[in-house]
Amino acid sequence: MGAVAEVTRGGERARPAPPERRRRSVGGVVAVVALAVCAVVFTYPLLWMALASLKPRSEVFEGSLWPSTFVWRNYVTVFQEIPLLTWLLNTFAVAAAAAVAVTISSALVAFAFAFLRFPGRDLLFGLVLATMMLPAAVTLIPTYAIWDALGLTGTQIPLWAGNLFGSAFYIFLLRQFFLTLPPDLLDAGRVDGLGHLGLFRHVVLPLSRPALVISVVFELKASWTDLLKPLVYLQEPHLFTLPRGLKVVLDRFGQGGEMRWDLVLAANVLATLPMVALFFAAQRYFVRGIATTGGR
Amino acid sequence: MTPGTPAGRAGQHRAGQDRAGRDRAGQGRARQDRARHRRSPAWSSPARRSATRRAEARAALGFLSPWLVGFVVFTAGPLLASLWLSFTSYDAISEPRWVGADNYRELAADPLVLKSLGNTVYYTVLHVPLSMALALGLALLLVAARRWGPFFRTVLYVPAVTPPVAVGVLFLLLLNGQTGLVNRALRLVGIDGPQWTSDPAWIKPGIVLLSLWSFGTTLVIYYAALQEVPGHLYEAARLDGANAWQRFRHVTLPMISGALFFTLVVNTIASLQMFAEVYTMYFGTAHTSAGAEEGLFYVVYLFRQAFEFLDMGYASALAWLLFLVILLVTLVQVRLSRRFVHYEGRR
Predict the structure, then answer these.
(1) Which CATH number characterizes residue B172's domain?
(2) CB contact under 8 A, A227 and B280
(3) Which of A198-207, A285-294, B205-214 bottoms out in mean pLDDT, i.e. has the lowest?
(4) What residues form the membrane-spanning segments (chain A) (predicted)?
(5) Which of A1, A6, A7 to mutate to test the interface with B (most CBs of B within 10 A)?
(6) Which chain A residue has its CA at the smallest distance from B15's CA?
(7) Could you report the predicted ipTM of this complex, rounded to two decimals?
């Protein structure tokens, strides 16, 4: 309730009213304290996971946050017992291919929707948006049949090649950004004799770097964390991506397995850490991308 | 720029060209050019204009081609193909065999369809409103915290970047009845927590709890929407004597109703397809009987039918049922939104 009262006081920066201001700052302090508590509650599981992965095997299930001794060897063992390095490299390669493919193809399509006139444009764009709502599970089986007919199941290609054809979410995101570009710059490009492809490459793309980064970062995350596709398409452990491998690690070393939760958690940390790093490196792009899509 | 290297030369070359181009195109030419793009009748004859239009449409076709091909091959085609497959018996090895409505008859009599659909709906009905309420409450706090808002937004978003499989693994431990952190925390306040991962009655509530942990995306959307609410509206409401609750109810909520509606639709669609976390926790080689019943979500069942039992015809029928359910739910939500969503300036 204090928070609500605070919010509602958004627009009165100019009025000097001492009692109001005191109440406002009290409300602000209450909000910060409440948020600090929530922040601890929400990040505690990650902190616990990171520290538990460094505990001696017998200690994982004990309540203490801090390990009695730091067993850095867990991270050596996990690389010896599990082909984790291969999985890390696989995941990175697949995610990079997925991100680059979806960004370039979606940018091409978004360029047409933003700058070119053609009959049925609005209708077609509506169709693009509609496909965003289509549940992936509905097209899963025929899509599998297509890759199977091409002899590509059991390879990593189906994990990213579909992205060569653009994706509604990114087309929408990039088009929104393209529409904010100053028309004069495009006109200048035309005056310089650039064709549509030239405008796309030499004017629109260089000016749209933030939106392109958003697209790359989002798809890196989506691909890195996906379980369903690797589960459907990959059978051989040397081709696994991390989520697929992590599930195997859980089944073999965790529940019903050897109960080596120290190793399971070390693998878990190694799968999560790159995403946390990516997020902190590209924070503002994450925030901007989410805000753009949510605000329509 | 280093002169002499190919890259440097190329760069200079292009810069030179640009300058030359700009010089060549004098004022008049530039005006003509701009006019052409604004479709000014003064410059071009109708025939000429329609030729430009056709060229532009042809170019558009080129730019659109990746999506057009993808739409036909990976969206519309599979959508129709799965409808057809749902009337066949298909194991991915031999050719599909037409069986009429058998799959749908089987589906209507299959208790696991009802069970998995029930589990999924139960989860959706709890997850969607709870995560929206949690996100809205914390977004209001973020606004109240002013310059601290962005910092806490970042911290609270971090769980959302954790891979779902890692979330599943983590919560198997956190929700453990004896040793998990959740029950330890409950014990601190004198509550004897349930066996979240083995008591059939508590498996789904446990999954809902898990799902609330990564609510960051919804939070970011609400925080952005709240910051766009113009302050003068609150000012006016206050002058009219509205109290804090009234201002929230009659200013804040209508002004962010677009964001609320968007998250409602998107989160509902996603919840109805919940897969990775539950599959990680309760399926695979070492699943428990309680988990296999209560953690059987609809897409998990669909996946198992298709890729573990290779009954792809039946799984296609399941897929189409899901498609219809999601379509229906979304249409109802859109219909309701016409009454509740306030679109500033674009009615």
Answers:
(1) 1.10.3720.10
(2) yes
(3) A285-294
(4) 25-47, 92-116, 123-147, 159-178, 263-282
(5) A7
(6) A192
(7) 0.86
